[in-house]
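User: Is it possible to get a 3D structure for a protein together with its bound compound? The compound here is thymidine-5'-diphosphate. I've pasted both below.
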Amino acid sequence: MSKSVKTTYFCQSCGAESAKWMGKCPSCGAWNSMVEEVIQKSDTRDRPHLIQGKSKVSNKPKRLADINVSEEERILSPDSELNRVLGGGIVPGSVVLIGGEPGIGKSTLMLQLATKLEEKTILYVSGEESEKQIRMRAERIQGNKNQCYILSEVNTQNIFKQIEPLEPDVIIIDSIQTLFSAHIESAAGSISQIRQCTSELVKYAKEVHVPVFIIGHITKEGTIAGPKVLEHMVDTVLQFEGDRHHSYRVLRALKNRFGSVSELGIYEMSMSGLREVINPSEMLLSDWENPLSGVCIGAAMEGNRTLLIEIQSLVSNATYGTPQRSTTGFDPKRLNMLLAVIEKIGGFPLATYDIFLNITGGIKVQDPALDLAVCMSILSSFRNFVIPHDSCFIAEVGLGGELRQVGQVQQRVVEAQKMGMKTAYIAKSAQKNIPNPPSELIIRPFATWNDILSEWV
Ligand code: TYD
Ligand code: MG
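Assistant: Yes, that's possible. Here is the predicted structure of the complex:
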């Protein structure tokens, strides 16, 4: 076997490759991110099949019309939120990458899938936790399926050796950063290792037609470590996110070759694992007995789902020179823009006040349809009046103070009525997009921010 040793420099931030060291990565512009990695090329790397004779897919050209689509029958998991995000179930032969911050619940989500999937043999490979730790976690989430096999191993060649006799129907890898392939000499977790291990797994999934779930850590910047290159190699990229101090978790598809990326799964982390949340609005709205000033309800779309969201703000006199603007779950730049509109168009002097804005429940939203609710919440705190808890505000606010229509208003007002709202404030231009107004909801259209103000202050 002829072997040649080669070293290359990889950017640890974007994965770009370079023959010599550079201070700044020419591809992503990151400074001091080039790290030398030893790559040992060997002939076995180019072996046509990872497991000889196991390929279930013939590689002759087929006419498009002759390809049988019903072959692609999806495996339905008991977790309906996961099915939804994957576009209707697990596609055999697909490779799914799951990213998320440490401690967010990636291992729990996958172990739950592994222990609750009926009539399938599942191999859960963990390079992070011992078998005992996994067993303890399985007991905690009450997963007691005996067709779930645990393998504590980091070497991909050994993993494939174990896969061969077991022939699992689903493989879960926790996590890709701990894996190590003997075909390459650099350390586990380095860009070239991550890339090599993923490509071996992708090759296996395609050859044997078995779905593979890969857990990946994310970097400080919020991208999956071992970065864009990985995202190109896999079929689906899911992001598991949420606030550590809250129990809600959101599973979002960032890329999906087999379904839409606008789907979203919502979970709650409980004492016994992750629970699917069927009606998220119910959990995001609080039950105030005495309504407070500064609280306002808006309707945001996350994927294809409508969420009624409570926005809370506090406007108070700034004690120090520069007033603070602080947000949780909302884009601070958008807040600054809305403050400028409130100040300029509405004439409220907010420049000397500290402003704090929270989206309650610990979720992050980007929908511009919340603009009006944000403005109302700030005003409610500033002028100290209470917005009734059965009013919902749905409109984007333009720079000139005009209220703009947003997408799927019909769906939003239907959800508002379902959640017990009595009045919905919307943009005048959106009225035509509500062909079937809910019978018990009063819809109040307004053209500008000033028109709404005359109603409230
Ligand atoms: P984990 O799945 O280990 O996160 P990751 O793999 O993304 O690093 O989740 C760990 C957190 O979840 C941990 O802080 C404890 C919490 N947790 C619960 O609250 N309830 C449970 O039933 C389980 C299993 C974990
Ligand atoms: Mg983990």
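Residues 33 and 372 are 43 Å apart (CA to CA). Residues 79-278 form a domain with the Rossmann fold fold (CATH 3.40.50.300).
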